[in-house]
């Protein structure tokens, strides 16, 4: 058995920040989950639908692994990423750092992980690996998946090699900290402004605040979009609230990030942004509840109400990001 020493297998709410927490703590940098999410400019929005999809998807964060790239860049850390189509090389890429005493992050499809509670394909899942023996890999996943968990080496290889939406080619990564750890206070404002700029200036209409406006138009039509409303609508709401989002489609995490920032940086615009995202988080949970009610009842009225709330959310989040974009550099 090969194990990295002194690993704190702390399962958090979101997979990517859980893995990042393991790797950063190993480098001596212990940040809260909201702080990692916010410094990684993780908040976003996407309304995703296509003819090939069974049902639309509402996403609340940047695409998989962008958070990791943003966070390590913001903190001045060295991020070493490896990808390969070779199963042998893929194993060497994670075994080598562990053999050298360093945990590795892995992006994979959660469908094949033996401990995973929900058997659905999600190629953007991220875990930290800190050990292995002849049969099993020792991982850290989210708290809801068990925190410190194991899966067979065979299942791990299948999960890493899976192809499909959001998958990567056996992607693994390590993080190395500088000799002197960075001051997070110096990184807060640039990370917030970068997130606000992307949110306010989306390249297409289904992203950012414009994506929320699109959702406000489309969600009231969702009963016409499915033959299985009792299954598809509650499932969509569940993904918003409990699928590693921290609740409220990641708005709880960003609210708490801004709350931490307001304690470190004395600026009224930060406090205003925090107050607006506190309101937004409550409304996103209301939207999820309305979508669930519509699915269970088969009635359109809750979806119409959800559309109204979504229009309010588009305005609130636009106003919040416009305020935060005005923070002094």
TrEMBL record:
Q: Which InterPro entries match?
A: BtrH_N, DUF4872
Enumerate the spans annotated as DUF4872 domain: 155-324
At the top level of its lineage, which domain of life is listed?
Bacteria
Domain named Butirosin biosynthesis protein H N-terminal: residues: 14-142
Where are the membrane-spanning stretches?
none
Write down what this protein is called.
Lantibiotic ABC transporter
What is the protein's species of origin?
Streptomyces agglomeratus
């Amino acid at each position: 058995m090969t194990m990295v020493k002194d690993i704190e297998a702390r399962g958090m709410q979101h997979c990517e920040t859980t893995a990042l927490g393991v790797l950063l703590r190993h480098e001596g940098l212990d940040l809260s989950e909201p702080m990692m999410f916010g410094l990684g400019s993780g908040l976003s929005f996407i309304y995703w639908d296509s003819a090939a999809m069974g049902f639309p998807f509402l996403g609340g964060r940047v695409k998989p692994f962008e958070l990791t790239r943003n966070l390590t860049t913001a903190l001045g850390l060295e991020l070493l990423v490896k990808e390969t189509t070779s199963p042998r090389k893929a194993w060497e890429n994670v075994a080598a750092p562990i053999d050298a005493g360093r945990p590795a992050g892995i992006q994979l499809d959660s469908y094949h992980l033996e401990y995973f509670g929900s058997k659905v394909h999600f190629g953007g899942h991220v875990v930290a690996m800190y050990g292995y023996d002849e049969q099993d890999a020792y991982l850290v996943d989210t708290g809801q998946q068990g925190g410190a968990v194991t899966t067979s080496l065979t299942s791990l290889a299948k999960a890493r090699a899976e192809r499909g939406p959001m998958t990567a080619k056996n992607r693994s990564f390590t993080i190395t900290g500088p000799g002197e750890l960075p001051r997070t206070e110096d990184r807060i404002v640039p990370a917030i402004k970068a997130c606000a700029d992307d949110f306010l200036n989306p390249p297409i209409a289904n992203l950012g605040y414009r994506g929320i406006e699109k959702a406000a138009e489309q969600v009231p039509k969702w009963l016409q979009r499915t033959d299985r409303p009792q299954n598809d609508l509650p499932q969509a709401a569940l993904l918003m609230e409990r699928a590693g989002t921290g609740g409220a489609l990641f708005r709880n995490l960003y609210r708490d990030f801004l709350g931490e920032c307001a304690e470190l940086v004395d600026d009224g615009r930060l406090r205003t942004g925090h107050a607006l995202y506190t309101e937004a988080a409550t409304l996103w949970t209301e939207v999820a509840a309305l979508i669930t009610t519509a699915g269970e009842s088969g009635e359109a009225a809750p979806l119409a109400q959800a559309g109204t709330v979504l229009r309010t959310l588009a305005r609130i989040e636009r106003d919040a990001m416009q305020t935060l974009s005005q923070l002094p550099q």
